[in-house]
Specification:
Layout (H helix, E strand, L loop, with lengths): L36 E11 L4 E9 L8 E4 H7 L10
Antiparallel strand pairs: 1-2, 2-3
Length: 89
């Protein structure tokens, strides 16, 4: 819980990056759209207690580069094998 006086207005770095044109999104009749990866710009490894987990940074369609996320490489290879073709990663 927090007091309302602690709230501050959000001022983004560049408001143009947060705007997505509706024409660029293929909306379904239920107002949803399919999200998918477009690129894997980076990869890393995370060390847990007894194993090392390979991770990839995923840039998603309809999102800017700052909104990319780290995902497990094995899960991404299973769901999106086309991203891992030779010369792509």
């Amino acid at each position: 819980m927090f007091h309302i006086s602690s709230l501050r207005r959000y001022l983004g770095d560049n408001l143009a990056h947060t705007h997505i044109a509706l024409e660029d999104i293929d909306l379904q009749p239920d107002s949803s759209y399919e999200e998918g990866p477009i690129a894997i710009p980076d990869h890393s490894e995370r060390k847990l207690r007894s194993k090392i987990v390979p991770l990839v940074r995923v840039q998603w369609r309809h999102h800017n580069a700052e909104e990319s996320t780290w995902e497990r490489e094995d899960e991404m290879r299973e769901r999106y094998p086309e991203l891992f073709l030779p010369g792509i990663l």
